[in-house]
Amino acid sequence: MVKTEKISEQDLKELTKFSPDDGLVVSLYLDVDGAKYPRILECEKILHALIDQAKQDWVEGDQLADKDQRKGVARDLGLIRDFINGQWQRNGTKGLAIFSCLDEGFWQIYELPVSVPSALIVGREPYAKTLTAVLNKYARLCVVSVDRKKSRLFTVYLGTIEEEQGVFVDEWVPDQVKAGDWAALRQSRIARHIDDHVMHHLKDIAAVTYDTFLENDCEHLVFSGHVETLPKFKQVLHPHLRERVVGEFFLDPDAPPQDFLEHTLRIEEQVREEFEGALVRHLEDESAPGGLGVRGLSETLAALVRGQVDTLLIAEGYTDSGFVCYTDHYQATEAGDCPVCGRSLSEAADVIEDMVQLAINQNVQVEYIAADNPFSERDRVGALLRYAQPRAAAG
User: Fold this and answer.
1) Chain centroid to CA 315: how far?
2) Which of 137, 172, 191 is the C-terminal boundary of a domain?
3) Which of these, 93, 184, 191, 207, could form a disulfide with 111 (CB 3.0-4.6 Å)?
4) Domain containing residue 35: CATH number
5) Are residues 30 and 156 in the same domain?
6) Residue of 74, 37, 55, 232 lying closest to 151 (CA atoms)
7) Structural domain containing residue 265
8) How far is 2 from 186, CA to CA, in rounded Å?
9) pLDDT at 31
10) 119-143 pLDDT, tens per residue?
11) Residue 143 belongs to what H/E stretch?
12) CA-to-CA distance for 152 and 155, rounded, in angstroms?
């Protein structure tokens, strides 16, 4: 199955639910951005190096004692290599994510319009942290460009722009009356007539904008228009959309889509920065005794295992080791036995990835915080809680 830039949170949730009974999952992330690698052979060299290293570690090395698992990993690596070297075409794709476990018929491909760091991971579950971070970074925005006669609608997601309606021109809106063309009274009546047509035009666009916003599951709305037109347009806009306006700029409706994209991405970056700052401040306030916040790996992991977490905050790029029971999804910072089944916990090279998997399956909102935020150096991980409970570190 191949999915492109329309990948959704639901796709991610379905991905993280997959857990093979006995086999292992090979997760590949490959940077195939043509701006960095004009020749696809350069990407294939990176791929071959990743596969060769994985073969050395998981097939020929001593990391796996189970012969069937070794054979399964070898088949998955071969399938991935053959797919990219053979039938796959880049066609503008910048990032590629592949998840394979042939032993259980699992094969997922995601083509992304944004680049991802190249990596190959073998584990008990799909390595979804990189994909989660990509989806977290980009919101889906609706952009409406409107003037007194024309309008255009776009959706912006994952750094790309798609036109939804094309240029709409309301031919019924008359041109503006020129001063001195008519006597004052006649001129006033014509002006009111023109204003009525303009408002009718704006109401039509407001209705189409509302439908487009909902149909595309957009999170934010961005305006482009003239300073004289936008206030009138806001008046006729549905209240649900007025609450989701995050910025505006002026471009002629006939401007190239790329110009709209550049302006929108600047607004999106600012919105994301403000959101992260507010989220971290909220966590700091709630981390006081008796509050609904925890910070640091040990307390956050304990809260997640107990099912307390509402929003999980993770610093971009943060990894840490820990211990996991992959049967009962128990996680801890120290070695020991699973309190559910009694078996010894397995060591996890990146327990943060296991936290993300568990969080997604608990319908927890996962938010990645930029590296330049003080949170990313001080706490690195934390959570806002659904309910308070005495804190006890896992493990």
Assistant:
1) 15
2) 137
3) 93
4) 3.30.960.10
5) no
6) 232
7) 141-275
8) 63
9) 94
10) 999 999 999 999 999 888 899 999 9
11) strand 141-146
12) 11
Shared domain check, 311 and 184: no
What is the C-alpha separation between 54 and 48, in angstroms, rounded? 10
Look at residue 231 and give its three-state secondary structure: helix
Q: How many CB atoms lie within 10 A of CB 82?
A: 11
Residues contacting residue 14 through CB under 8 Å, at least 6 positions apart: none
- Rounded Cα distance between 149 and 309, Å, is 49
Q: What is the mean pLDDT of the chain?
A: 88
Token readout for 255 is 């401007």
More confident residue, 172 or 86: 86
Q: Is the dihedral of CA 300, 302, 303, 304 positive or negative?
A: positive
The tokens for 307 are 């099912």
Which of 103, 137, 171 is at the close of a domain? 137
Q: Residues, the chain, total?
A: 395
Residue 280 lies in a domain: no
Q: Which residues contact 250 (CB under 8 A, 6 or more apart)?
A: 224, 225, 226, 227
The SS3 of residue 152 is: strand
pLDDT tens, residue by residue, 324-369 = 998 888 999 999 999 999 999 999 889 998 999 899 889 899 999 9
Element (H, E) at 191: helix 184-215
Residue 14 within any structural domain of the chain: yes
